[in-house]
Fold this sequence. Notes:
This protein has 219 residues and is of the alpha+beta class. It has 3 domains: 2-45, no CATH class; 56-91; 93-217, Roll (PH-domain like), CATH 2.30.29.30. It is 34% helix and 29% strand. It is built from 6 helices and 9 strands, in the order E-H-H-H-E-H-E-E-E-E-E-E-E-H-H. Strand 7 and strand 8 (169-178) form a beta hairpin. Helix 1 (7-13) packs across helix 2 (15-27). The longest helix is centred in the middle third of the chain and has 34 residues, at 58-91. The chain starts with a strand and ends with a helix.
Amino acid sequence: MESFLSTADLFRASPLVFWCWVSIELSVPSEFPPSLFSLRRLSWTSSTVGDHKAALPVTEVESFQLEIADAEEREAHLKAKLDHVDGILRSARLADYLYVRTRWTELPGEPPIIDDTEVDDWLPQFVVFSDSCILYYQKSTDLSPQDSILLSDVVEVGLLPSFERGDQEILHGFFILTSRGSKSECASLSKVQVDSWLTTLQLMGCHVGSTSDPDELTE
């Protein structure tokens, strides 16, 4: 179907073309017939090739659909992580990032354990203390813990000697000894944070070992 542009339509469509036309109109000598330089109505044709309507390729539409589905899946996954962290913070007694490493105590009948105290294998983990267990996550947004300790398996807790690490950072630590022989050592730059963990473990009925200072825990 064909439609026509009036002078006003021409100005709205392209002011530059309109003013060029005006300049031509004003510069035309009076002896020339007006119809010779008059602007004919411009045609604006909208047509399709054959009877086919313009459309996006099927592959492009499918690509958009896949992107939308992926975005929705990522959104759902992130929401699940957010809900998980929110649930942890609401229900946990304590939840902190601590430096953690595991050592094993010598059990009866086993050969002596090599002294690896000086080995620097501390890794940051998100440690959560709930009512019945201690959970170790690699990150706070992880949905499943890497390790856990039942509170009923804890036989002793206590302070670790402070030590220097890295760029002259002083770390304060505590340990959690279990009936299985595992010794979870946790450390932090904050002594207040360490004391808070030990105090809470003590209040939950965990036995404080002789290596810790009970007076420090009750300050």
